[in-house]
Amino acid sequence: MTILVFVKRVPDTESKIRIQYEARTILEDGLSFVISPYDEFAVEEALRLREAKGGAVRVVSVGKDESLTVLRKALAMGADEAVLIKDVTPETYDGLRTARIIARAVERKFPGADLLLFGKQSVGADNSQVPAMVAELLGLPQATVVTKLEVADGTATAFREIEGGSEKVALSLPAVVTAQKGLNEPRYETLKGIMAAKKKDIPVVTLDELGFAAEDLVPQVEITGLDVPAARQAGKILQGDPAHAARELAALLRNEAKVL
Amino acid sequence: MIAVFMELRDGKIKKSSLETLSEAKRRAADLGCDAVAVLVGSGVEASAADAFGAGAARAYALESQALAGYSAQGFALALAEWAGEARPAAVLFAATAMGRDLAPRVAARLGAGLVSDCTGVAVTNGKLEFTRPIYAGKAVLKCVLRSSPQLATLRPNVFPLGETAPGAGEVVRRDVSVPDGAVKGRAVEVLREQGGEIDVTEAEIVVTGGRGLKGPENFGLLRELAALFPKAAVGASRSAVDSGWIGHQHQVGQTGKTVSPNLYFAVGVSGAIQHLAGMSSSKVIVAVNKDPEAPIFKVADYGIVGDLFQVVPLLTEEIKTILAE
Ligand SMILES: Cc1cc2nc3c(=O)[nH]c(=O)nc-3n(C[C@H](O)[C@H](O)[C@H](O)COP(=O)(O)OP(=O)(O)OC[C@H]3O[C@@H](n4cnc5c(N)ncnc54)[C@H](O)[C@@H]3O)c2cc1C
Ligand SMILES: Nc1ncnc2c1ncn2[C@@H]1O[C@H](COP(=O)(O)O)[C@@H](O)[C@H]1O
């Protein structure tokens, strides 16, 4: 089977976020970037499916040249091919814009895929939008936030996390599936894999080649403000005798916080 | 008009949908329009009553046999077709598992922008202005949408419920035609977690344990505290989950669930940024940690510096006494 995996380059979750106020963007210098952690689960799942059923794993990222590093990481993990769709626009937080690019690329450049795997959300934008939008644009079924996936001939069964349990979803292939933690344990790249990934050629597709003019991709999201969160008021921290502290806390929760 | 998708569970509208409707009603008042409820499924007309209680001017029931079980594809088709005709200014969803699954499909079908997981909505220049945390809560984005309709999902437990008086109103039924083969995937079974515990995202009080608990058996201390409240759930840090002490469905944080309860207890949790991402919109945060320098104390409204094995049983007793008063 042919599996497409979509990966995004994002700031490491440990990063300290600083803001460029005039431009309403975050400051990129000093940040370290990684493959979005859920996308790693998606790559791993694709590799396991290939190992079980044969086929090929193709990894795709939309972004600037720097995104080549996350594609190389996926190659080092074992993906067969990688493609960069070059888009130099800074983060728009607009899922539909990215979804349109991806859907068009799938139609024109990668027809015939059996499965499209994504992360459940890209950390940073924290949107959880792109995969289901791609599914809709391509008329494919979806299962999002999946912790278990079983693929058979032309069909798949996915278990997705919902409030208080899980939901079993039956899909016909091709389908869109998004990975949640728990789906698998991503492997580490081997030295051999890293060396091989370095040698692989990563083709670059331009938005122009996909038939987009600049005005086609104006984001729907218009940023009106970007700031750091308001600091929480300093709390009351009780020390000393535990029995006394526990009594005082219970009283504060009732009389001051009014939550009891 | 602002439309709100009503998610049903066992035939009843979920609280998070009613919260979203309450917020829609407040913002509709600013805009000088109505808030309406939209139900999707088969035989859902009868479930509309609670929406009137929460202030819906009207309810729409989008009905089809083919929509008897949830499918993102089928529900998106119904909602987009309705929105194309009814032309609401905005369509809002609660940011639940279903809302997050469905809203992007509706947006794509309508070619409309979507803002995910909002914690604030205001009206500026006749448009909705959304506020949402990004970068795991390390930054806050405000934005408007250029598209019509404007679509957004609203974080559960953040927006207050409006008056929930029993009400009645007009239910407009629309029969949806779902072409054969249009739905290629659907939910076939819901597997509830054993014990029927309430989910951390739906609990009013969350008692979370971290590595400081030292072992799975000590979650019992937290369960005893949680058991004092009618709608409480036990949460966990990733370290506790990764150690196999408790299931992943309890995990709070960036790779777990986002919660905004009225009261959040963090017990033996250091307060790593990825944990804070999932709980910092809680209304009141209480931390119990033996390390006075633990970062969790920076976000806590109240804290006790001490050994949790001493503090938690004492606190449980004190709270029990106060609740009995
Ligand atoms: C990509 C990514 C995603 C992540 N996602 C999540 C996530 O979703 N959720 C999450 O929680 N973490 C997440 N993490 C992990 C996170 O970075 C921390 O490692 C984790 O939250 C730490 O868990 P903890 O607070 O239980 O453990 P620790 O950091 O080890 O803290 C234990 C605390 O218990 C206290 N303690 C110990 N003994 C006692 C005692 N007897 N009495 C009182 N206090 C005591 C200690 O002082 C300490 O503060 C993620 C990390 C990454 C890289
Ligand atoms: N620029 C991108 N390039 C490739 N894949 C992306 C991109 N943005 C989002 N995705 C995919 O869509 C998933 C969800 O992203 P989001 O909707 O931004 O939360 C990610 O985990 C990726 O799999």
Largest sheet of chain A: 9 strands, mixed
Global outline of chain B: elongated
- What is the string of SSEs of chain B from the N terminus onward? EEEHEHEHEHEEEEEEEEHEHEHEHEH
Order of strands, widest sheet of chain B:
7-11-6-1-4-5-12
What oligomerization state is this entry in?
heterodimer
Word description of this protein:
The complex is a heterodimer of chains A (260) and B (325). Chain A is an alpha/beta fold and 260 residues long. Helices cover 28% and strands 30% of the residues of chain A. In chain A, helix 2 packs across helix 5 (191-199) and helix 3 (95-109) crosses helix 4. Chain B is α/β, with parallel strands linked by helices and 325 residues long. Helix content of chain B is 28%, strand content 29%. Chain B has 9 helices and 18 strands. Chain B has helices at residues 15-31, 49-53, 72-86, 97-110, 219-226, 238-242, 273-279, 296-299, 308-324; strands spanning 2-5, 8-9, 12-13, 35-41, 58-63, 90-94, 114-118, 120-124, 127-134, 139-145, 150-154, 170-175, 185-192, 205-209, 232-236, 263-267, 284-289, 302-305. Chain B has a 7-stranded parallel β-sheet, with helices on both faces. Chain B has a 5-stranded parallel β-sheet with strand order 15-14-16-17-18. Chain B has a 3-stranded antiparallel β-sheet with strand order 8-9-10. In chain B, helix 3 packs across helix 4 (97-110). At the A-B interface, helix 3, helix 4, strand 9, strand 10 and strand 11 of A face helix 3, helix 4, strand 7, strand 9 and strand 10 of B. Strand 11 (165-172) of chain A pairs antiparallel with strand 13 of chain B. Bound molecules: flavin-adenine dinucleotide and adenosine monophosphate. Flavin-adenine dinucleotide binds next to helix 6, helix 7, strand 17 and helix 9 of chain B.
Key terms for this structure?
heterodimer; A: alpha/beta; nine-stranded mixed beta sheet; two-stranded antiparallel ribbon; B: alpha/beta; seven-stranded parallel beta sheet; five-stranded parallel beta sheet; 9 helices; 18 strands; 28% helix; binds flavin-adenine dinucleotide
